[in-house]
Design goal:
Number of helices: 7
CATH class of the largest domain: Alpha Beta
Largest sheet: 6 strands, mixed
CATH topology of the largest domain: Rossmann fold
Strand content: 5-15%
CATH architecture of the largest domain: 3-Layer(aba) Sandwich
Radius of gyration: 20 Å
Distance between the termini: 45 Å
Strand order of the largest sheet: 3-4-2-1-5-6
Number of strands: 6
Length: 169
C-alpha cells in the first residue's frame, strides 16, 4: 500500500514491525501496547497484563481468599494495584516505603497487620524476595500462604512456553 498523505517514517516503521509479527497473540499485544502509548488508556495494557502467566497465577492463587496482603510497593506493586484493580488488598506493605499512597492504598509496615497469619501474601519483588520470604516465615506466616512473583519469573522465564520444545544439549 502506498504511503498515506504525510505518513512519517515512524509510522511506516511501526506498520513494518506489525506486518512482520507472525502470530495473532503477538499482534494483539503489539496493537494494545501501541494504543496504550497513544492514548494513555490503561484498559489496553490491562488486557495484556490480565492474560500473562503471572497474572493468571496471581488470580488462581487468590481465588476464594478473603484477606490479602501485597508485599512490595515498588514498580511491580504499583503495576499490580493499577492493572489488577478489581483485587482488593487489605494491606499493601513495604520494608522501605511507608506512609505513601500507591493507587489508593496506604503503604504500611508489616508490624501494622493485625493477626498476620490469617492473610495470604503476594510478594511483588524481583530481587530480594528470599529475604522477604524469610522475614514472613520468621513471623510465623505459613509458606503455603506466600506467593513470590520473583520466584515465578526466575522459574518460568523463557522456557515456560508450551510450544518451545527443548532438546538435549
Amino acid at each position: 500500500m502506498k504511503s498515506f498523505l504525510n505518513e512519517t517514517n515512524d509510522t511506516i516503521a511501526l506498520k513494518n514491525v506489525y506486518d512482520h509479527i507472525q502470530d495473532e497473540e503477538s499482534r494483539n499485544i503489539y496493537m494494545a501496547r501501541s494504543m496504550y502509548s497513544l492514548s494513555d488508556n490503561k484498559n489496553y495494557m490491562k488486557d495484556i497484563v490480565r492474560k500473562c502467566d503471572m497474572s493468571m497465577e496471581i488470580y488462581n492463587s487468590i481465588v476464594g481468599k478473603n484477606k490479602l496482603v501485597l508485599f512490595g510497593a515498588g514498580t511491580w506493586g504499583e503495576a499490580i494495584t493499577y492493572y489488577l484493580d478489581d483485587i482488593h488488598w487489605d494491606y499493601v506493605i513495604d520494608n522501605k516505603i511507608q506512609g505513601n499512597v500507591v493507587n489508593g492504598y496506604k503503604i504500611n509496615k508489616i508490624d501494622e497487620i493485625k493477626q498476620p497469619n490469617e492473610y495470604y501474601y503476594i510478594v511483588a519483588c524481583m530481587f530480594k524476595w528470599r529475604e522477604i520470604e524469610n522475614q514472613l516465615i520468621d513471623r510465623g506466616i505459613p509458606s503455603n500462604n506466600i506467593l513470590i512473583l520473583g520466584k515465578l519469573v526466575e522459574e518460568k522465564q523463557y522456557f515456560d512456553l508450551s510450544y518451545l520444545k527443548l532438546g538435549g544439549g
